[in-house]
Write a structure and sequence with these properties.
The protein has 506 residues and is of the alpha/beta class. It has 4 domains: 130 residues, 3-Layer(aba) Sandwich (Rossmann fold), CATH 3.40.50.1390; 152 residues, Putative Large Serine Recombinase, Chain B, Domain 2 (Hect, E3 ligase catalytic domain fold, Alpha-Beta Complex), CATH 3.90.1750; 115 residues, no CATH class; 61 residues, Helix Hairpins. Helix content is 43%, strand content 20%. A 5-stranded mixed beta sheet has the order 2-1-3-4-5, sandwiched between helices. α4 crosses α5 and α13 packs antiparallel against α14. It is elongated.
Length: 506
């Protein structure tokens, strides 16, 4: 036998002639109970817009304590005027096996019709929840694309300061100089071909540079890795604009805004983690704060991180100066070095085959023999050059940055017009064709002008002796120095048991 009590709940916002009194509500509920015992809860002078009412909360506590079996009220709006609050309350009732009865609407969850009405209410409550969530998401999206501070952990290297955008108060990041020096150090180290994240962590530990966000104050690969790909640190210029545009990101600032001072925010439309190699459905916004890392160093570090994603396990350059450059000739994944006491000593093996990820493998390649073969190929290749041209982007001519900005803007205008083609009528299509033809002609003029300026400025050369000087005392070089030479000369090496193919950088 159920020994729990019935509960009668009544509420009245204000005493008015046209409002039903608490006493009248209780009388109606008593009639519904047909003489069964009950406990009374009433809130006088409280609105139904929320459930923050003393007696209502007291009733909920009794329900959670297992004292109540049924809640009876005069009308649904006496419980709450919010469908969302009402649905949450019904969830609570169901959890504790409590029935609900509304006298006026004949809403009784112990009957089939009452349960059907309950389901209808829950559907509308879910609709309201999703509508609220969408409004919040739209507001967040709109504010984020304008550069507002959207909360979250403050990145290492910055602290918050008050700021205003379009007259509205917000916050922005301000550079913490001592931490910013550590950020620059991380990027400069990682931008070097022979440096790994592990090397950076060892350097930080050896020099007593602590991680303030860790309990033990030590850095780890996850933390350093997140720093090395965060665009919040970059001093964004046109190269950064191009980098993110080529990755498919939606960029919300004009090319001319990328002047090499501000950091960037990266937002995603998708739930879950960010993609590494493709930024479709991602948004890049220039942030109001000052960046820390020069764009060229940030891009070198980021590209290195992206290239390393295909390597199944970290490669140790101390095992071979070809690590990081030599790939499996069958699947394209990196070759890693193993040691054997009974066979050839050091040997290369496909990292993908090693992890049983689908490559049939190339067998064990004698690492020393491959190194000798590549060294001989480097010496032969250098004989073909008397002068090595080292083109660099000239900085002396002030017209080049202006041309770059206009090229980016023209390309963006062409893309914008192309997006309108599917919906264009005959008249609009004719206008689009005329505009694209004019823009395409202007783009050709700009590219020709840029090429002329570059050809005029590309006069710096380096003699082959600067590189062959390394070759004359190769055996005396460290593994890191040898790897630096390989990185300068070779894009990649593809190796199988039958052949070794080298793709040269020069």
């Amino acid at each position: 036998m159920d020994t729990r009590l019935n509960a009668i709940y009544a509420r009245q916002s204000v005493d008015r002639l046209d409002s039903i009194s608490i006493e009248s509500q209780i009388e109606f509920c008593q009639y519904e109970l047909r003489g069964e015992a009950y406990k009374e809860y009433s809130d006088r002078g409280f609105s139904g817009k929320n459930t923050s009412r003393p007696q209502f909360q007291s009733m909920l506590e009794d329900i959670r304590s297992g004292l109540i079996k049924r809640v009876v009220c005069y009308r649904l709006d006496r419980i709450s005027r919010s469908v969302l609050d009402f649905a949450n309350m019904i969830d609570e009732f169901q959890r504790y096996h409590v029935e609900f009865v509304s006298c006026s609407e004949k809403f009784d969850t112990s009957t089939p019709m009452g349960r059907a009405m309950l389901n209808i209410c829950i559907v509308f409550a879910q609709l309201e929840r999703e509508t609220i969530q969408q409004r919040v998401a739209d507001a967040y999206h709109s504010r984020s694309l304008k550069g507002y501070y959207m909360g979250g952990r403050i990145p290492y290297g910055y602290h918050l300061e008050e700021y205003s955008i379009d007259g509205k108060r917000t916050s922005r990041y301000a550079v913490n100089e001592s931490e910013a020096d550590v950020i620059r150090l991380m990027y400069e180290l990682y931008a070097k071909p022979q440096t790994s994240i592990g090397d950076i962590i060892r350097y930080l530990d050896e020099h007593g540079i602590e991680n303030p966000n860790a309990d033990d104050k030590h850095w780890n690969k996850s933390r350093v890795g997140r720093i090395l790909k965060n665009p919040v640190y970059v001093r964004a210029d046109l190269d950064i604009y191009d980098f993110f545009a080529h990755q498919g990101a939606d960029i919300h600032n004009e090319p001319g805004d990328f002047i090499g001072t501000n950091g960037c925010y990266l937002y995603s439309d998708e739930k879950g983690g960010r993609k590494e190699t493709c930024l479709e459905h991602h948004h890049i916004v220039l942030a109001p704060h000052e960046g820390i890392v020069p764009a060229d160093i940030w891009i070198r570090a980021r590209k290195k991180g992206l290239n390393n994603k295909q390597v199944a396990r970290p490669l140790k350059a101390k095992n071979s100066w070809l690590c990081g450059n030599i790939k499996c000739g069958k699947c394209g994944y990196a070759l890693t070095v193993k040691r054997s006491k009974t066979r050839i000593g050091r040997y290369f093996i496909c990292s993908r085959h090693l992890d049983s990820c689908g490559c049939e493998g190339i067998g064990g390649l004698d690492a020393t023999a491959i190194e000798d073969l590549v060294l001989e190929a480097i010496e032969d290749h250098l004989q073909d050059f008397k002068v090595l041209h080292c083109p660099q982007r000239p900085q002396a001519d002030a017209r080049l940055p202006e041309i770059d900005v206009e090229i980016a803007q023209v390309e963006r205008d062409i893309t914008s017009l192309m997006d309108k083609v599917p919906e264009a009528g005959q008249t609009l299509m004719r206008h689009i064709n005329e505009k694209i033809s004019a823009l395409d002609k202007r783009l050709g003029e700009l590219i020709s002008a840029k090429k002329a300026l570059l050809d005029a400025e590309l006069s710096r050369t380096a003699t082959v002796d600067e590189i062959t000087d390394y070759m004359s005392h190769w055996d005396e070089l460290t593994v890191s120095d040898k790897k630096t030479v390989v990185d300068a000369l070779i894009v990649s090496i593809r190796a199988t048991r039958e052949k070794v193919r080298i793709e040269w950088r020069i």
